[in-house]
Design a protein that fits this description.
The complex is a heterodimer of chains A (482) and B (462).
Chain A: H1 3-7, H2 21-31, H3 42-58, H4 73-89, H5 91-94, H6 104-112, H7 122-130, H8 137-142, H9 145-153, H10 158-171, H11 180-189, H12 241-258, H13 261-277, H14 283-298, H15 302-317, H16 324-338, H17 341-350, H18 353-357, H19 359-372, H20 376-383, H21 390-412, E1 417-418, H22 419-425, H23 431-440, E2 447-450, E3 453-456, H24 464-474
Antiparallel strand pairs in A: 1-3, 2-3
Chain B: H1 6-14, H2 17-23, H3 35-41, H4 48-56, H5 66-94, H6 101-120, H7 130-154, E1 157-159, E2 168-171, H8 175-192, H9 206-220, H10 223-235, H11 248-264, H12 268-281, H13 287-305, H14 311-316, H15 318-333, H16 336-345, H17 347-352, H18 356-359, H19 362-377, E3 397-399, H20 400-410, H21 422-434, E4 440-443, E5 448-451
Antiparallel strand pairs in B: 1-2, 3-5, 4-5
Chain lengths: 482, 462
């Protein structure tokens, strides 16, 4: 199987066409060893490929189709088989009451999406979907007898299907610890209203999820509670991009007005989930993650922040826009906070020369180097002059750095230092704050008035700050979620 | 077929583990480049089982128990498939096609599984453990090739397409290598869990396998997993042969990696001990290994004792000379600006070797050397009555302004020293004192530093 061979594969085209580069690459991808799917042989795949390209050429859509994102023939075949199988495995669902335990948003979703309220209408609904003009061409053409046959078999061979359904459940990694029953209950909570699947709904299974097509969302409701998925999301509960865009605006407004973090965080998680199941990876995706990361930072929710940061790192590598410099800077500060040397080394290795000239990155690097060298003077100057929301990150470790600086100062300065000096050096808002901090760490007896000022008697500090510092540096709760 | 099994029969009857391991090595030895090809061509998938049975079980030259014979038939059957995959991958590479290293990896993993099965069922004796070495070694080799090919093809970011919460599945994922790490870990457990008496225990394979794990974990950037391995070795150290009884090559590698793990953990004292031992054990002619060891040992030594490598040492290793030479000169001179420059010039290289964050701390030593010059330039206190020349004391009360002037010179700032406040100068002095590089205290009100009369700069003779 060589690429040179494969480029000539779709040759038997009706017209003599000069194939665009994107089509050629598409064909190459079809034949790449990595894209083979077990169980789908070459002949089938080639036949499907031929069909796809011929159709595209005949309908003059060769240039219109985004070949980079077009599903590979083997994926289409697999999806078809899945759809057929999905039908076969659904009957056990029907014995369950449908609205038990379903959440309020489900009914809302059902309402807006004009979902049937009786199970009788389910298949009718799926037929309606089939006639949907929005279906991609390969769907329309391949919706064939095979699907219907397996569907028709449903009622006759119940036994076999039950076994099949059980097999299906065991092959899904997540259901290992769940009985089919609880899984179904959970499914219903997600608004599993229509048990009959339209062909472009996917049947997820972690093993070959990569080859499933994206969900096409139909939900029109702006808000949605977050649930961790354990099975395929239903299109009725997934919001398409235009709705999600409105959702984001709404959430931004709500955050400004109400600042209810647990609500916002939950909403953002469901927003992220909807983006993921629809394979939406664009500037909007980046925007969502950035905003969630900033809000999490503001509330000091480091766990959630870190999740967003990891995602952003990969998204930036795809050049989708956003604010990479700002977030690289946060990443550096976060590594300082968690004292992750391996992580820090990785960040430094990733930095390019242009990255290093960006002001936020420069600042974060300066913070890093000041702390590495124990230059507390510079560190606290930088602290007072932090761009963007880096100050929230710095706040999470400013206390322990103050203790470190105090340990340092008390050893080096004798016999005493003025409180004024400490306030300045350690970036406190006021002398009062400074004294408060000292007292909080048990230095109340070491603060004395002297002539026209108040001083900390460093000569008598001993190991007080040293011990406090060691303690403060020891416990870093990395996964510290609210 | 029999011709392929001459080596096997000989190895079995000699009980030579390394020779035996050579017969299941999925790469042809240099003296016999056609070995895999001959083996593959000597049978077909139809006759494979029979051929192997005749060569292994019914052969008059060797007498294996039935279980042992069957185990070897399984192993060689899987090995035969690996050999086919390897030959195909090599051929594809030669022809400039995409080689399917993931297929090779999968085939080899089957072979390794057959081997592990044979050990867990107690069929194979402990003298055969070099087979496990080969198993682990090539798992790693093939996994790296497969991952490299996958990332060239798909890019380094893997997006989630399934029903996940977040868009991105993994960054820079080394899927196969991670799997290889798990498999090698199984081999590790196989060795460490062997309860047979020491003289015939698989525990003799532990350090080789540990070293393989270290290599793999380092490549995966999961150093912390290396610590787990060190911990479990530590825990079972009482019923293990002493490290000194293991082959030297196992020892050197182990000491090196363990030393680097301590190094990255900032336990420089422990690291130095391990690396030093690795260096002593290291073969004098393996320059590259010595270089690797010294790459970590030099920073270690700088941080623990604040001493620099001698020019003679560096001269013997041109690569190290390039890496550390400029920095060492600046540290010695107390040239801060030069130090910063040299550090950022080699930053990429230092970061790649994971020594940047440690080398950065060499700045402290540079600063100490600069301040020491201030102290020396300060001269002596005037002689007191009855005091002799040899007892004359250096001036120990040094104005902060003098240190500030030195800093300005050292950092290449102009006379006015823009961007250098007095508080920052004090901060640097405070750091020196805090880190025991300087002895004394700052009297802020009087604007002076009072240095110790006995050894103001410990370890430097003044």
């Amino acid at each position: 199987m060589t690429t040179s061979q494969t480029t000539s594969q779709p040759a038997p085209a009706p017209r003599k066409v000069e194939w665009p580069q994107s089509v050629r690459e598409y064909v190459q991808r079809c034949f790449a060893p990595g894209s083979a799917i077990p169980g789908i042989d070459h002949v089938e795949m080639e036949a499907m490929l031929k069909k796809i390209i011929t159709q595209a050429a005949e309908s003059d859509r060769l240039l219109e189709i985004d070949w980079d994102k077009h599903p590979l023939p083997q994926q289409i075949i697999q999806a078809e088989r899945k759809a057929a199988q999905g039908r076969a495995s659904t009957p056990p669902l029907r014995s369950q009451p449908f609205y038990e335990g379903s959440h309020s948003y489900n009914s809302a979703a059902a309402g807006t999406a004009n979902m049937p309220t009786s199970k009788k209408r389910k298949s009718a609904d799926s037929d309606a979907l089939d006639q949907n003009g929005d279906l991609p061409p390969w769907r329309k053409n391949t919706r064939n007898l095979e699907d219907r046959v397996s569907y028709a078999q449903n009622d006759r061979t119940e036994k076999r299907q039950r076994k099949k359904a059980a097999d299906d459940a065991t092959t899904r990694g997540t259901s290992k610890y769940q009985s089919t029953n609880t899984l179904e209950k959970r499914k219903q909570r997600f608004g599993d209203l229509a048990d009959d699947r339209s062909p472009h709904m996917k049947e997820p299974s972690p093993t070959d999820s990569a080859s499933d097509g994206p969900v096409v969302g139909m939900c029109q409701t702006l808000e949605k509670k977050y649930f961790r998925l354990t099975s395929a999301p239903k299109p009725e509960t997934v919001r398409p991009l235009p709705v999600l865009e409105k959702t984001l605006e709404l959430l931004k407004k709500k955050w400004r007005k109400e600042s209810n973090y647990s609500y916002i965080c939950d909403q953002f998680k469901s927003l992220r989930q909807d983006l993921t199941v629809q394979h939406i990876k664009n500037e909007f995706t980046v925007n969502v993650y950035e905003i969630h990361a900033r809000i999490a930072l503001e509330k000091g929710d480091m766990g959630e922040y870190n999740q967003c940061q990891t995602q952003l790192r990969a998204l930036y590598s795809q050049n989708l826009g956003g604010h990479p410099a700002e977030f690289v800077a946060y990443r550096i500060l976060y590594c300082i906070y968690t004292r992750n040397r391996t992580g820090m080394n990785e960040v430094l290795a990733d930095l390019t020369t242009t990255d290093k000239t960006k002001p936020p990155v420069k600042h974060a690097l300066a913070v890093r180097s000041a702390l590495a060298l124990g230059n507390y003077h510079k560190f606290f100057r930088l602290y007072l002059d932090t761009p963007n929301m880096g100050a929230y990150l710095l706040d999470s470790f400013i206390g322990r750095e103050r203790l470190a600086a105090l340990a340092n100062i008390s050893k080096a300065y004798k016999p005493d230092v003025k409180i004024r000096f400490l306030t300045e050096e350690l970036g406190f808002e006021s002398d009062q704050d400074c004294v408060q901090f000292l007292c909080d760490h048990g230095a109340e007896d070491l603060i004395e008035p002297k002539e026209d000022s108040i001083v900390l008697v460093t000569g008598k500090v001993g190991r007080l700050f040293e011990d406090a510092k060691t303690g403060a540096f020891r416990k870093v709760d990395i996964k510290g979620q609210i | 077929m029999d011709v392929c099994f001459d080596d096997f029969h000989r190895a079995i009857s000699d009980q030579n583990g390394y020779a035996l391991a050579a017969t299941i090595t999925p790469a042809a030895p240099p003296y016999d480049p056609g070995r895999l090809y001959v083996f593959v061509r000597n049978t077909s998938s139809f006759t494979l089982q029979t051929d192997l049975r005749y060569a292994i079980i019914y052969n008059a030259n060797v007498h294996l128990s039935k279980a042992e014979g069957n185990a070897w038939v399984d192993i060689f059957a899987a090995y035969w498939k690996t050999a086919i995959a390897v030959l195909k991958a090599e051929e594809d590479t030669n022809q400039g096609k995409i080689a399917e290293w993931d297929v090779v990896y999968a085939a080899w993993k089957d072979t390794v599984n057959a081997l592990i099965r044979a050990y867990t069922s107690g069929v194979l004796a402990a003298w055969t453990i070099p087979c496990l070495y080969v198993a682990g070694k090539y798992l790693r080799v093939f996994a790296i090739k497969a991952d490299k090919q996958a990332s060239a093809y798909n890019g380094s970011v893997k997006f989630n397409d399934g029903f996940q919460d977040d868009v991105v599945g993994a960054i820079g994922k080394n899927e196969k290598l991670e799997d290889a790490a798990r498999q090698i870990n199984r081999i590790f457990s196989l060795c460490i869990g062997d309860r047979a008496p020491l003289e015939e225990s698989r525990k003799w394979g532990l350090y080789y396998i540990t070293n393989l794990l270290f290599k793999t974990y380092f490549k995966l950037n999961s150093i912390s997993l290396s610590k787990n391995i060190m911990r479990s070795l530590q825990a079972s150290s009482t019923d293990m042969p002493p490290l000194s009884a293991f082959p030297k090559s196992h020892r050197v590698t182990f000491k090196y990696y363990a030393g680097v793990v301590y190094f990255l953990d900032e336990d420089y004292v422990q690291a130095e001990a391990y690396l030093d031992e690795a260096r002593r054990l290291c073969h004098t002619s393996s320059k590259r290994n010595q270089e690797l060891i010294l790459t970590y040992l030099i920073p270690c030594h700088l941080l623990t004792t604040h001493t620099l490598p001698t020019p003679e040492l560096l001269a013997r290793y041109p690569r190290l000379q390039n890496l550390f030479g400029p920095l060492c000169r600046c540290i010695k001179k107390g040239d801060l600006a030069g130090f910063d420059e040299a550090l950022s010039a080699s930053e990429d290289e230092f970061v790649r070797r994971r020594i940047y964050l440690s080398m950065e701390r060499g700045r402290d030593v540079t600063l100490r050397n600069l301040f020491r010059k201030v102290f020396l330039a300060g001269g002596y206190e005037p002689l007191k009555e009855g005091q002799e020349e040899k007892d004359r004391l250096r001036r120990t009360r040094v104005p902060i302004a003098e240190f500030a002037a030195a800093l300005r010179l050292g950092m290449g700032l102009d006379r006015e020293g823009e961007g250098l406040e007095r508080d920052e100068v004090e901060c640097m002095i405070a750091n020196m004192i805090y880190k025991n590089l300087m002895k004394g205290y700052i009297a802020r009100e009087r604007g002076i530093v009072v240095l110790s009369k006995a050894g103001a700069f410990p370890g430097t003779g003044v």
